[in-house]
Structure formats: C-alpha cells, structure tokens
Amino acid sequence: MAKETLKQTKVADLPAPVLPAVVEAVGTTLAPTYETAAAEYDVTQHNIFSETLRPKKRVKRVQKDADGNPILGKDKKPQYKTERIEVNRIGIPLQALIVKRRVSFMNVGKMQLEANPVDDAEKKLYAMVKKIREDNKLEFLEKEIARRMLSELQVAKLWYSEPVDPLYWTSIGAKGNFRMRCKVISPKLGDKLLPVFDDYGNMIYFGRVYESKRSLAEITGESDASTLAQIATTKEKRFDIYSDKMIYKFRQERTGEKSETGDGWIMESAAPHSYGKIPVIYYSKPEPVWAEVQASISRIETLVSNFGDTNDYHASPVFVMTGNVGAQFLEKGEQGKSLQIKGEKGDAKYVTWEQATEAVKLELDTLVNFIFTCTQTPQMSMEDLKGLGAASGVAYDRIFMDAHLAAQDEIDGEYGQSTQRDINLNKSFCAAIDTSLIKAAQSLSIKFDIPLFRINDDAETVGLLQKASGGAKLLSQKTAIEYSPLTKNAEEEMAEIKKDEAEKAALEAAKVKQPILQ
C-alpha cells in the first residue's frame, strides 16, 4: 500500500481551518484497497447469503383445485405455475478462524519489556512506562489490536490524558498531576482513520472522523425544552486532528452555521499538548491474511450448500419396483412388510448413490488442506490432534513451526514496528508527566520481546534442567508444594508434613525400644 505524502515544507504553513479538507483528502488515499475485508470476515455477509449471487431455485408446480385435482386449461392440459424455493445457504467462518489462530500464535498478550536502566532517573522512567501499560491492561488490548489489524486492516491506539491525584505516582518515586489512558479506534467501531505522512514516511497528522452525541454542557445549556430531547439523542459528525504539538477538534456545521472554508467543519477547540509526538499509534495491512484463499473458501461454501440441497431431495431412500410386483405399504411403526413378485422380470430395490458423495468429499478435503496450508494455519481440531498421541513440547514446536513462522512475520512487520513506536511514545508521556525525566527518555532504550506460543511440557522442562545441572535438585520442598494444584496454603501444608514426619519418626523409635520376646 503506497503512502501518499504531504510535502514536509508545507506542514508549518497549514492554517487550522483548512486542516479537515487536507487531512481527509490525503488520509483517504491510505485506506486499504481491499474493500471487501469486513464482509468476508463477517460470515453473515458472505456471498452465499446473497439472493443476487445465489438466487432461489425456480420450480414449476401443477396447479390444483381445493380437492387436489389438477387444473386443466383450454387445451385440456394441466396448468403450471413457477415458484421460487429457498436453497441452502451454509456460511463457514474460515476467515475468522484463520485470524483467531494467527493472533493466538503471535502471543502478543505475553509481551515483555526489556531495558537496562543505569541510574535512578532511567529506573524511574522504566517503572513509569510499565505502570502506564499495566494500568491500561495492554496485555489484553494488544490481542484486540492484532485481531483488528489482521481483519479490518486499519486500527489505532489513541492516547489521552486525565487528571490524577499526585499520590498516584509516588509509589514508584515519580511525580505528576495526570496519567495516560488508551482507547482502541477502528473502522468497525465507527471511526474513519486518516493518517497523513510526509516525504520521509513520518506521520505528521492523524485524523479521526466519528459520530458522537453533544456534550452534557451543551445539552443543559439548551433553553428550548421542545428541542432538548432531540438534541440529547441526535448524533453529529466530529473530526479530531492530531499533530505533534496540537489537538484540533471540529464538528459538522449545524443549521444556521457556515464554516470558514465552506467544507462543513466548525472548529471547536485547538489545544496544545506537551507529548512532543502525535499521541496516536496507527497499524495497517494492505490485505487480510486469507486474501489468497478467499476464492477457495467461497467454493467450499457453495459445495456444502449445494450438497445440502441434494440431500434435501435425495437423502430419503427411493424404492423402485419393476415388473409385476404386488406390495402392501405399511405405516410408520408397523412390521412385517411383504412383497409378491410375479414373473421372471419382476424386481424391487432401493436406489442408492455410488460415487457422487466421494467426488464432493475429495474436492472438499483438497480445498480445506489448500486453505490451511497456504495461510500457514494449523489444523487443531480434536479429530486432527487425536492421532498425534502423547507428543512432547518440542514435538509440538516442530508441528507448529509453520504457524510460528507466520506469526513471527507479523511481529517483524507492521505490528512490531508500530509496537516499538508505541513504547517510545510511552517514554515521551513519562517525560511530559515528570519533566525531570526528559534526559532519561532520550537515553533509555526500551525494547520488547514476545515468547513463542508453546504447549507446556513440565516433565520435559524439568528433565532438561536437571540434565543441565548434573542431576542436582532443582526445587525446594516448599516451592514444589506452592506449585501443586492441590495446595491451598503452602505454609500450613509444610507444617502438616513436618507433623506427619515427626509422628512417623516417633513410631519408628518406639518400635526400636520394645524388647524382643522369645
């Protein structure tokens, strides 16, 4: 996805009133060209449910009167009418499954920060960054960000400040009167994302168009009671624009208003901020992870739906009699059906399918394998895993190697780059909150590490560690008790174990002191 740019030399010359038109014009060009991602991800919007792409079946039926007799025309022939009968529409959410497993193998919820602070200021900054991320529950938001990036192709973290008691930071030795909060914004959440980059790929503006109700202050300030209810419930368009120094807020012009530039946007506020960077982290992808196999997924849905239609018409057995056959058909639940066949050519049998279902099954299996292989998605159903037996953790690492490679590609790409920018932005927040950390924010380098998604094999891990330590003991009795899933209180359990050992030792000593009778 090519990035349309805005000449950096003109950035400082842009007056606030023209920003909405410029940001929207340039930012819109960055929208992903793969426009059907949302519809493909949502199984209810698949083509299989479209009556235009999959019309109802046209069937001619004989018209009958109230007694069930065919209605005849002037030519004494039965009259027919055409009816449309609903067909099977079976959607399969393979796109959502592919994204879900890709996000799981990315394992972004287990992200860990890595830094080597050398003095008190850097240690304080590092602690502030971790506190910001922990208080905003980034371990959960990162999974949402990854999922929305892979499915919606556009998502962003919007950071904003709110006042806080100065005691909020004293636990880590910092000081400040506000803290940072994080909000996820994306097209599916009702946001239009409009990033603007300069000639060097740096984001110089970020626009967000959305709908919102009027503020409480505006509602309470309305004197006309007849329009108060309408104002309170009606949403209006808003346009927020962020730069590295300012936050501009615009709203759609109302009845009787006229914007300065004629673009329909009225500026409500222009507030400076001290972050030094745009408080938005933008994530994007040119196409979804299932793009190359979308045609195969559509074909599977068509095959399964058609097979359902075939079953509706032909699944019940068809009984064929030829020649001179006498039969008494029985009602449901009766027994003792009998046939009387006369003559050499008389016969009676059920009509069954021979190879039709095998051909459909072969195509389905081929398409499913193709989809999972080409998207590097592991097949992890109970049916797929039961044949693996008691495989070790290392064995599963090899089985899931392709999925790990795909996840690492995402982390090394747009997601990883944006995540590193997010960490650097957090450092700028800390320096804005506590200005004594400005130098530390410039000198301290904070990276991140995401461990591989693994199926834990504790026995294998302990065995490897014992081998590495020459067979030495790895855990104390207390630590082993704490890790036991049956233990509720390790201290009480240790006391009970010592008590049992003392009673056992006393019994053994008593046996030794007893005389041996001849």
Summarize the structure.
The chain has 518 residues and is an alpha+beta fold. It is built from 18 helices and 14 strands.
Index terms:
518 residues, five-stranded antiparallel β-sheet, 40% helix, flat, disordered N terminus
Q: Please state the average pLDDT score.
A: 84
Q: How many helical stretches?
A: 18
Number of strands: 14
- DSSP strand (E) fraction? 15-25%
Q: Could you describe the largest sheet, including whether it forms a barrel?
A: 5 strands, antiparallel
Give the helix level as a range of percent: 40-55%
Compute the CA-based radius of gyration. Answer: 35 Å
Shape: flat
The neighbouring-strand order within the major sheet is 6-7-8-9-10
Low-confidence runs of at least 5 consecutive residues: 1-5
- Determine the N-to-C terminus distance: 98 Å
Structural class estimated from helices and strands: alpha+beta
